[in-house]
What does this fold into?
Amino acid sequence: MEGVAGGITPSVTAVLKIAREHVDAMIAHAREDHPDEACGVIIGPEGSNVPTRLIRMTNAERSPTFFRFEPQEQFALYKQMSTTGEEIVVVYHSHTATEAYPSRTDISLASEPQAHYLIVSTAESDASSEGTVSVRSFRIVDGAVTEEEIDVTE
Amino acid sequence: MSVEVRIPTILRTFTGGEKAVHGDGATLQEVLDDIDARNPGLKDRIVESEALRRFVNVYVNDEDVRFAGGLNAPTSDGDVVVVLPAVAGG
It folds into this structure.
């Protein structure tokens, strides 16, 4: 997915570099929890912008239209990251009946300006391992949504 | 001594980028009022209609204040308050 004709690097285009195993793990999580929304994070060293460790979070809402990290789990994650010097690099969740684009709720509640918001849509595949699953990534800052490319590394 | 309040990234625009600020008070409400005096607007992002905002979690010494008196949760010197916006969406 890399390489631009003419050797010009478009610095204005944001890119999320992410490991294949993480993408596969998020899709698997989304399929398992379908038709409810699945959610989780990939954390990495503070300031690195490199997602290294995927952690599934419990969707406290257990809902097909809403998600919220279980508060005690989120607090435990916060404490762990404070100790290890890590931060949330990717926040992921699934949409189970709509496209992989931030909903109005996603935009109004986005509270991690440093994070990549990754959405997995299982709307066209259900829980089966066949059918199309779409995965898209966004920055959401002050209500503004910017889609970015996903560069999957093997 | 005073109460340390840890500020999440999204609210650091109110604290000049500081990850933590200090305030005095015998309750969470008083501490928030105190830090808001030096960081105007911060409290409004945590409190709404005199209650904690629905999508903001607050902890005093590791205890979720929703189960410890809410804004009336007692605080004392050396306590640590953590403000953690819920990660949520639809």
